[in-house]
Amino acid sequence: xxxxxxxxxxxxxxxxxxxxxxxxxxxxxxxxxxxxxxxxxxxxxxxxxxxxxxxxxxxxxxxxxxxxxxxxxxxxxxxxxxxxxxxxxxxxxxxxxxxxxxxxx
Length: 105
Hints:
The protein is of the alpha+beta class. It has 3 helices and 8 strands. The strands form 2 sheets. Strands 2, 3, 4, 5, 6 and 7 form a 6-stranded antiparallel β-sheet that branches. It has a two-stranded antiparallel ribbon with strand order 1-8. A hairpin with a 2-residue loop joins strand 4 (57-61) and strand 5. The longest helix has 12 residues, at 2-13. It is elongated, with a radius of gyration of 14 Å.
């Protein structure tokens, strides 16, 4: 369904837009904890606006457990800009949740 939607958007407008966190990261694995470690959260971007900072580790997004950074990227790109997703993440040892209004990529 995702590929079809992208193809139709390309045919219609000549370009395709998808959601973005406005952050870069890598897979985090520390002990039993795995997730998407945010290395570079862009100031005033979608993740920063939702309160995420460098070093936070997203472990759930859109009600799906996040085991690695690539999985998070795929999930986010399946959304349109301005869609909202709820994430659960670790900020240090504290577990938090927030809603991110996705940016555009």
